[in-house]
Amino acid sequence: MFHSDSSSGHQRTPLPPAQRPAAGVPSPRHSPERPAPENRPTKGESGKKRDAFFDNAKYLAIVLVAMGHSWEPVKAHNQFLKALYDVVYTLHMPAFIIISGFFSRSFDARPDRLRRLVTGVVVPYVLFETAYSLFKRYVGHTPDQPISLLDPWYLTWFLCALFVWRLTTPIWRQLRHPLAVALVVAMAASVSPDIGNDLDMQRVLQFLPYFVLGLTLRPEHFRLVRRWSVRIAAVPVFAVALAVAYWAAPQMNTAWFYHRDAAQELAAPWWVGPLMVLALFACSLVLTACFYSWVPGRRMWFTSLGAGTLYGYLLHGFLLKGADLRGWFEQPWLHRPLGVVLVTLFAVTAVTLLCTPPVQRVFRFAMEPRMEWAFRRDAGDAARRREGTSGSAGGAARGASRERVSA
Question: Ranges for the Acyltransferase domain (predicted)?
Answer without folding.
Answer: 52-349
